[in-house]
C-alpha cells in the first residue's frame, strides 16, 4: 500500500487505494456514468454584505486542505481502484449577480438545479463546483456541489464550517494556519488495519448471525426499490413545542430523542405496512474514535436496525427496544453494508438489507461569516434506493422532517401524503407514549362495515323528514348551473369545465351508477388522480344517492385494500390507468367511450333518486396516526350545515377563485370543493409543480388569480418563512388564507401581518375528521 501524503512532490507517490465506501460508489456510478445521481449539494444562505472576494480566498484555502476533493479515480490493470493526485483537476468558482432577474431566488434555484444535473467524470474530475449567487442587496447563496465519492454529509459540513471560520478570521484581520484537517492517508491506513484485524472477522460473524433470520424489508412503495437518478424531496417544519415534547418523552423513557424518533419511525412503517418487524436503514457516522473525525471524506455507513413492533407494548417500550438494538450493534457499525450484503448472498440470503432509511441529523446548520448569519440547506444527499426520512432539531428549537424518495417509486402527492401522515402520527404517538400500540386509541375503533350495520338498524327518516337547516349542497350547485351555466366551475392548467359541462358530466356518471344498482346511503369508492374527472365523479356519486369514499392511487397496496375491505368491498369508480390497482373488485370505468354516452335524451333514461338529509354524503378514512385507518361517515345534513357555515365565515362569493390544495382523501378538500361550487366560484386544482418551492407556489397562485387558499399550517409556515427570506410575495389577488391542522407560530403570524397588511384575512381552523372538517375558526389579527 502507498499511503504517502498527496501534498508531496513525488508524482509516483500521489495516489492511495480507494476505500471500501468509495469503491461502492464508484461501481454504482459506473453502472450509468452519465447520471448525476451521486452529486451532493449544499446551499448556504447568507444575509448581509458578504465580501465575495474574501469568501473565494477562504473557499480555495480550505478546499486545498481537503484532499479527497481533488482526486481522480482510476482502475489499474489488476482491477485495483486508486484515487490519484498526480494531476489535480481545476475546479471552478462561479460568481453570479442575479439581482436584475425578475425572480432572483428562482433564477438561483434554476442555476443550482442545472448544475446538480451535470454528471461528474470520476476519471477526469473535478469532483467539486463552488458558486456564489447574489439574490438580493444583502443576500447571497453560497453553493457547493461535491460528488459523493469524495465526502459524506458530515464531511461536507466540515468543509462548510471550515470556510465560515476562516472567512470570519480573515474578516477580523487574523491569519489562521488553516482548517486543521487530518490527512486522508490516515483514514486509508486505518481501514487497511481494520480489514486485517480480528475485529473485522468478529464484526462479520455478528452481522451474518444477526441478519440470518431477518424478514424481507418492507417498503411504503408498490414497486421494487432500486437506485434511481431522480430523487423527490418534501420537507415539513414542526414547531418548537413538538421538539420539546419529543425530548421530554425521551427523557421519561431514559433514552435519547434520536432513539425515540427511530421508534416512532419504525411504528409508522409498521402501521402503514402492517409488518410485525421492521428493518430500518440507520446511517452511522463511522468517525468516533477514528482518524476520520478530522478528515473530510466518505466513510459514512448504513447499518440495518431490526425493530420488532409488538402491538401489545407501548411506544416507551419500543423506544427501549430500539435503544438496546442500537447499543448492541454499535460496536459493529464499522462493517460495511455492501460487504454484509455480499456475505449474505454467499450463504443464499439474497435480499435487501433494510427498507426505509431514517437519518437523525445532529449537525448545527447555522454558520457565521464575520458579522453575518448563514444557514446551511441541503440540496441533495445523493441517490435514494427507496425512502429516506431525515429528522433534525433546528437551531430555533423546531423539528425539521424531510422525506427523500426514489422518483421511480413515489409520486409527489404520495410523498406529501406520507410526510403529513408521519407528522400526524408523531404527534399522536407523543400524546399517548404509555399506551399499547394495539390499544384502541392507538389503532382503531370500529370498521366502516360495522358502522353501516349499526346504521341499518336505525334507518334514515323519510324524504323531507330532516332537521337540516341548511340547503343541500347539490341543490346549491344546481342553482349555480341555472344562474351561471357558462362560468368556469373547475380549472386545471389549460383544462376547464363550465358549470353546465360539469353538472352534465356528473349526471351521466350518476345514471351509470344507478344503472349499476348502487343504492342510496351506501359508499362508492372513487380512485382517480387529481383532475376535473374526480370532481365529476364525486358529484356523480352524490347525485346517485350514495356517499363517496375517496382513495389515493398512490397508497400502498396494503392500505388501499385494507380500506376497501374495511368498507365492505364497495363499487370503485376509476379509470383505465388505475383499474389494475383494484383488479378483481367491482368497478365502474370513467373517462372512456362509455363515459361519453348519455341517456339524457332517452324517454327511458335512468331516474335519479331522492335522498334524505341523513343519508351518507362521504366517508373519509383517517391517516391511522392513532391506529390503523378508520372510516368516518358524514351525512348530507352535516355536510350542508358545514358548507353553509364555512362559506359565510370566509365570505366566499361567485367572484372567487378557490385553490383546491388538499388531496381528495383529506377532508380539507371538502371545504375547498363545496365552498367553491355552491357559491358559483371557480375551483382551481393544484398541480404538483406548485409544490416544488415557495416561489413556484406563489407565482402559480398569482398566475391563476387565486383569491382564497386553504393550506396545512406547516406548509403555510414554509410559505411565510420563504416570504421573509425574500423568496416571493403573496399575490395581490389573494384575500383569504385559511390554515389548519395545528396552531400557527405566534412570531410567524406577526411577521406575516407586518408583511401582507390587514387586507388579507388569515384564519386558523381546527377540527377532527369525525366532526365534519372544521369545528373552530379563528381570525388571526395583528396584535403588535
Description:
This protein has three domains: 11-186, Chloramphenicol Acetyltransferase (2-Layer Sandwich); 205-370 and 380-431, 2-Layer Sandwich (Chloramphenicol Acetyltransferase), CATH 3.30.559.30; 448-686, ANL, N-terminal domain (Rossmann fold), CATH 3.40.50. Mean pLDDT is 85; it is low at 1-12, 440-468 and 596-604. It has a six-stranded mixed β-sheet with strand order 5-6-7-2-13-12, sandwiched between helices. A four-stranded mixed β-sheet has the order 8-15-14-11. β6 and β7 (139-147) form a beta hairpin. It is of the alpha/beta class and 784 residues long.
Provide keyphrases for this structure.
784 residues, alpha/beta, Chloramphenicol Acetyltransferase, Rossmann fold, 3 domains, six-stranded mixed sheet, four-stranded mixed sheet, 29 strands, 21% strand, AMP-binding_CS, Non-ribosomal peptide synthetase component F
Secondary structure: elements and pairs:
Blueprint: E1 15-17, H1 20-30, E2 39-47, H2 52-64, E3 72-75, E4 81-84, E5 93-97, H3 104-116, E6 128-136, E7 139-147, H4 153-171, H5 184-195, H6 198-210, E8 231-238, H7 240-252, H8 257-273, E9 277-284, E10 301-308, H9 315-329, H10 337-346, E11 357-360, E12 366-369, E13 372-380, E14 387-393, E15 399-406, H11 412-431, H12 448-456, H13 473-483, E16 488-492, E17 495-498, H14 499-515, E18 523-527, H15 532-543, E19 547-551, H16 557-566, E20 572-574, E21 587-589, H17 593-596, E22 616-621, E23 631-635, H18 636-650, E24 657-660, H19 668-677, E25 682-685, H20 694-703, E26 708-712, H21 713-724, E27 736-740, H22 746-756, E28 761-766, E29 776-780
Parallel strand pairs: 5-6, 11-14, 16-25, 18-19, 18-20, 20-21, 24-25, 26-27, 27-28
Antiparallel strand pairs: 1-4, 2-7, 2-13, 3-4, 6-7, 8-15, 9-10, 12-13, 14-15, 16-17, 22-23, 28-29
Helix pairs in contact: 2-4, 7-8, 8-9, 14-15, 18-19, 20-21, 21-22
